[in-house]
Amino acid sequence: MKLICHSQKAGDVVVIRCSGRIVAGEEVRSLQSETEKFLLETKKFVLQLAEVAYVDSGGLGAIVRLLGTLRAARGDLKLCQLSPFLQEVFESTNLKGLFPSYGTEAEAIAAFSQRPPAPALGTVATQKKVICIDSSGDLLAYLSAFLKRRNFEVYTAKFLSDATTIVKSTRPCLAICGSTTQASSAAFEKFRQADPRMQVLLLPPDFHAAEASRAGMDLLERIQSLLSTRE
């Protein structure tokens, strides 16, 4: 089922009603095109997701990346009327707290006029450092959000050359590499030699297209397994 988007302005807020699947490829590009129509007018968006039946890792990453883009421009992205499937995805990936979510469009629109809550203060435990490398910005956004919600300190890079520099300066305990990073064996070997003690986790080629919550849980199990052997 293709993604169908219908937009409506409510003052300076744009509501985008989505129906179908939010997945890597044409569907994600469709959602991006819909938001780009209004970016010169506003940076405030609501995604109404009552009829979204499926989201993969790339699709969820695209939503995360849109959130970051809008907040960097002093805007925001709010979600409303999550379908039962999406409610389960956000619960299982622990991303529910990242996205303001509301029961109705009216509540989501009204929230833009409210003052955001002050961040909670507290002691943060020492975080394990992870670097994620892949050419897809959406996949990196998904991995970064997923891992940060589990108290990892996350670095990202699209190119092995940049990742090598980051590894030398930050010394992460784990590198998560997408399939695109393995195209050049010489570059990949040079990257691994930047810190021979660093564990390396290779993602399968279809990871970006896997159902978002299942992909996250499988990834977390592999991470825990690798880090336990390091310790």
Highlighted features:
Transcription Regulator spoIIAA, 8 helices, alpha/beta, 41% helix, single chain, 2 domains, 231 residues, four-stranded parallel beta sheet
Number of domains: 2
**Share of β-strand residues:** 15-25%
CATH architecture of the largest domain: 2-Layer Sandwich
* CATH fold group of the largest domain: Transcription Regulator spoIIAA
The CATH homologous superfamily name of the largest domain equals STAS domain
Explain the overall architecture.
With 231 residues, the chain is an alpha/beta fold. Helix 2 (57-72) links the parallel strand 3 and strand 4. 38% of the residues are buried. It contains 8 helices and 9 strands. Helix 2 crosses helix 5, helix 2 (57-72) crosses helix 8 (212-230) and helix 6 (160-170) packs parallel to helix 7. Helices cover 41% and strands 24% of the residues. It has helices spanning 26-36, 57-72, 84-92, 105-111, 137-148, 160-170, 185-193, 212-230; strands at 4-10, 13-22, 44-55, 76-80, 101-102, 128-133, 152-157, 174-177, 199-202. The protein has 2 domains: 4-111, 2-Layer Sandwich (Transcription Regulator spoIIAA), CATH 3.30.750.24; 128-230, Rossmann fold (3-Layer(aba) Sandwich).
